[in-house]
Amino acid sequence: MLEYAFFITHGEHQIEVLSGLGYPAYLATILGLWKLLGVIAIVIPRFPRLKEWAYAGFFFELSGAALSHAFSGEGPALIAQPLVFLALVIASWALRPPSRKLASK
User: 67: which residues sit within 8 A by CB, 6+ positions away?
Assistant: First the structure.
């Protein structure tokens, strides 16, 4: 949860990484707020459609982070970091209880 605060408050490391990838500093605020809202959506009970959107958002954010690192020529370790978290997000999505899944028709 602390990472989101660093994004929102423009932590030095977060701004350094974003600027190194060619992104503007204000993107940190946007990403931090979206991540925080995504975590809240996944943790709160009910609202399965909102949870699906939150998981999709995490997928796009983390896969985009990995691709940004790859396209900017960074090493395998920096490319792999978001992919590890993406694997955890996918596992969380796949293993969630039926009460948190969107009912199929």
Answer: none
Higher-confidence residue of 76 and 102: namely: 76
Q: What is the pTM of this model?
A: 0.85
How wide is the angle at C-alpha 28 spanned by C-alphas 23 and 33, nearest 5°?
A: 140
Residue 100 DSSP code: G
* Cα four-point dihedral sign 20, 26, 32, 38: negative
Q: Look up residue 71 and give its amino acid.
A: F
CA–chain centroid gap for 19, Å, is 18
Cβ atoms within 10 Å, residue 76:
10
> pLDDT, tens digit, for every residue of 44-55?
988 999 999 999
